[in-house]
Amino acid sequence: MARMKFLADAERCIECNGCVTACKNENEVPWGVNRRRVVTLNDGLPGEKSISVACMHCSDAPCMAVCPVDCFYKTTEGVVLHDKDICIGCGYCFYACPFGAPQFPQDGAFGLRGKMDKCTFCAGGPEPDHSPAEFRKYGRNRLAEGKLPACAEQCATKALLGGDADVIADIYRDRVLKRGKGSEIWGWGTAYGRPEKQPATQPGAKS
Amino acid sequence: MRKLLLIAVAAALPLAAAGCGEKPTVTVYKQGMYQGKPDTRPWDSDQSSTSLQNQWQKGDKVAWEKAIKARNLGQNEYVRGAQTAN
Predict the structure, then answer these.
(1) Is B72 part of any domain?
(2) pTM of the model
(3) How far apart are CA A19 and CA A37, in angstroms?
(4) A206 pLDDT more than 60
(5) Average model confidence (pLDDT) across chain A
(6) Most buried pick, A34, A118, A158, B50, via CB within 10 A?
(7) B17-60 pLDDT, tens per residue?
(8) Among A148, A173, A198, A202, the residue to mutate for chain B (most B Cβ within 10 A)
């Protein structure tokens, strides 16, 4: 099994926001927090392009590097997750992330910032799998159910692919050959261009 | 009187010793090491609470990978179309 990755195909995305809705629904993400969003470039102009953006679960994740309390870890499947019980909500990861993935629930008159929340690749967190605590903090653990992220699986045009890097890269290559254009994959080089870090030797160990 | 004093001391000893058994509540920080709780691998989770109880047994990595691969390949509509046409 290779690493789990997302692939956004700008040629196919129709900006329906189905992935955003699926993510919100599947993980019961609170109001004001958007784990996934659709970004449109040159909106309203001929040839506009849309892409679905969330945590890309980078090979060499900058959020992991800057976290002052080391609350991030990478699973053996290459999914970048974090422990909310350790997070202090400092926001360093937000500034380090090239995709703006880390989200912070805000509340109160002084904009109190809560613990960081981000896409988990529908892989839950360090709480026991399928437990109420895991769902409350991190959302549903579809990966432990043998499923892929809800956003990618429900995508009507299959503009958003998620899963084993080798398989989705093959699907995309086949697609580009058939349509004869649009070989650029937005964010792929940024997220996966650096050498893959060694997978965790123990469950939960930081690689 | 001496007997009473002895009983009082004997009763107080466990209470005094209990104070020595206090565990440290502060995390020992190791730079660059993950500080949180350990996570289980996806194939190691208990499936009894999910709707996919019969897909694989707990700890069966091969069956889990098979399920994920099927989902992966299901994203290729060219292949899906060909399968439907055949």
Answers:
(1) yes
(2) 0.83
(3) 8
(4) no
(5) 90
(6) A118
(7) 766 666 766 666 777 788 888 999 999 887 766 666 667 788 88
(8) A148
Residue B45 is nearest to which of A85, A144, A178, comparing CB atoms? A144
- Do B40 and A203 lie within an 8 Å CB cutoff? yes
Which residue ranges form the domains of chain A, and what is each CATH number? 4-192 (3.30.70.20)
DSSP string, B2-37: HHHHHHHHHHHHHHHHHGGGPPP-S----TTS--S-
For residue A152, list chain B residues with Cβ-Cβ distance below 8 A: 75
CA distance A127 to B13: 39
Predicted complex ipTM: 0.85
Verify whether the Cβ–Cβ distance B50 to A152 is below 8 Å: no
Say if B42 falls within a structural domain: no
- How many Cα atoms are found within 13 Å in the side-chain-facing hemisphere of B60? 15
Closest alpha carbon within chain B to A69? B35
**Into how many domains does chain B fold?**
1
Q: Examine residue B83 and state whether it is found in any structural domain, yes or no.
A: yes
